[in-house]
Design brief:
seven-stranded mixed beta barrel; about 5% helix; single chain; Neuraminidase; six-stranded antiparallel beta sheet; 33 strands
Length: about 450
């Protein structure tokens, strides 16, 4: 039995319970949300070997953007980059998270909100702005219908310690009815190389290290593996990494490097190295990792395999999908599904067991044909060539997604509609939606 860090380490940790969403559970218990997947309310798309049924978008949240600025900082960021994520509780409830702060690691405050759905995404409860993280977190199932959210951003254990890091954990209990917050409840210990800090506007003790735990986690080789990325001190390019835990997600250590920066590409605009990543176990037991290398249409996702439970990885190849925060799952029937984008939002499918061949549907296009209010459409706008990143056409979405299987071959896709600039008026909102996807093999 795994004990909480307060018991195991003797920390004088503060535990705060937020009673959050008990009112959202109806008298009859958890609903099925089956109306979302009614074929009479869905449209079908024929792909090779597949028929994909797509339902109408359901709103999770909406908010007018806001901007922040302070002396000496070069950009004025607007709250137009929700970067949503989603996870499923052991009993089926869903949690959606999204950032409430500006899209920068220089913020004077970090805040992420969350909402709970008790009926497979058909309805969503009130927002709770309780999470002091900016980047999406990894969630790990726990007993009693709970989820452990591992912090995406970490602090030096003591200022100047470049090898040991801490961060708070968030334990969402009983399907989201309460949240337990434990400061410094997660540790990353004995990191093998020095990690620098990202100097920001917060107090020195709150400066984040350049190591982020984000993506997903799975059990492999008798331990938990989670995805992470970070810099080596003195370098610029990112490394896509796995970390391991043998106590259920409270203590982590370096495990392996999936890929690092390509020196031949460093310096090219929008190239980043290897960063945001998801891993999935294939039918033959091998692991497949899919990761980001840049932002924009020219930067396709990369993919590597492991035959030894994540200890070593193959040379990465290139997928047809592009470009940020890939979400990969293997469904109950063995189908591989991948959501990503920028530009746009796409859902990719592979029917072969190792993900050799892929075909896609255009989620943003389907969304725009489904909504009746023009303000909810995911459009584009033009910027000057010397503006941010490399493309002059910008889509009104962060292209970050969440992807879960709520029933066999029934998926729920979380995505956003963001202005991606200072809102032009009070109707130019940041929205988060979920779209039901039902897949059948021909």
């Amino acid at each position: 039995m795994i004990r909480e860090p307060i018991q195991k380490w003797g920390l004088a940790a503060l535990s705060i319970l937020f009673i959050a969403a008990s009112a959202n559970r109806g008298k009859s218990g958890q609903a099925t949300g089956s109306s979302l997947f009614s074929r009479s309310e869905m449209q079908s798309i024929d792909l090779q070997g597949l028929r994909v049924w797509v339902g109408k978008p359901v709103q999770v949240t909406a908010q007018l953007g806001w901007k922040m600025g302070w002396p000496g900082y070069e950009w004025e960021h607007a709250f137009t980059h929700l970067t949503p994520a989603m996870a499923k509780f052991p009993s089926g409830e869903l949690i959606a998270t999204y950032t409430l702060d500006s899209d920068t690691q220089q913020n004077p405050v970090f805040a992420t909100g969350y909402q709970i759905s008790k009926d497979s995404g058909a309805h969503w409860g009130r927002r709770y702005s309780m999470i002091m993280q900016h980047i999406s977190m990894v969630c790990i199932p726990k007993p009693h219908d709970s989820l452990l959210a591992v912090p995406s951003e970490l602090f030096e254990k003591t200022p100047g310690d470049e090898h040991n890091f801490v961060g708070p954990y968030y334990l969402f209990k009983r399907g989201g009815e309460s949240m337990e917050f434990v400061p410094d409840g997660v540790r990353v210990v004995d990191w093998p190389w020095p990690v620098d800090v990202d100097r920001g506007q917060q107090p020195r003790d709150n400066w984040h290290v350049d190591l982020n735990i984000t993506g997903n986690a799975l059990e492999a080789g008798g331990k938990l593996l989670a995805t992470a990325y970070g810099h080596k001190k003195g370098e610029k390019g990112y490394y896509a990494l796995t970390i391991s835990s043998e106590d259920g997600g409270y203590t982590w250590r370096y495990f392996s490097t999936v890929a690092g920066p390509d020196s031949a590409l460093m310096g090219q605009r929008s190239y980043e190295g290897a960063d945001e990543m998801n891993i999935v176990q294939l039918a033959d037991g091998d692991l497949m990792a899919v990761f980001r290398v840049g932002s924009g249409r020219k930067w396709n996702l990369h993919r590597a395999y492991s035959r030894d439970q994540g200890r070593t990885w193959s040379q990465a190849d290139v997928l047809p999908a592009w470009s940020v925060y890939p979400q990969v799952i293997r469904t109950s029937s063995g189908l591989l599904a991948l959501s990503t984008g920028r530009p746009g939002i796409y859902l990719w499918f592979s029917t072969d067991p190792r993900g050799e061949n892929w075909q896609s549907i255009d989620v943003a296009g389907l969304h725009n044909r489904s909504v009746t209010d023009d303000a909810e459409r995911i459009g584009t706008f033009e910027i000057t060539p010397n503006d941010y990143l490399s493309e002059t056409t910008k889509w009104q979405t962060s292209s970050y997604t969440g992807l879960v299987e709520v029933a066999p071959d029934k998926l729920l896709l979380l995505y956003d509609r963001d202005p991606e600039r200072i809102p032009r008026d009070s109707n130019d909102l940041s929205w988060a939606f979920v779209m039901p996807i039902d897949i059948e093999r021909k």
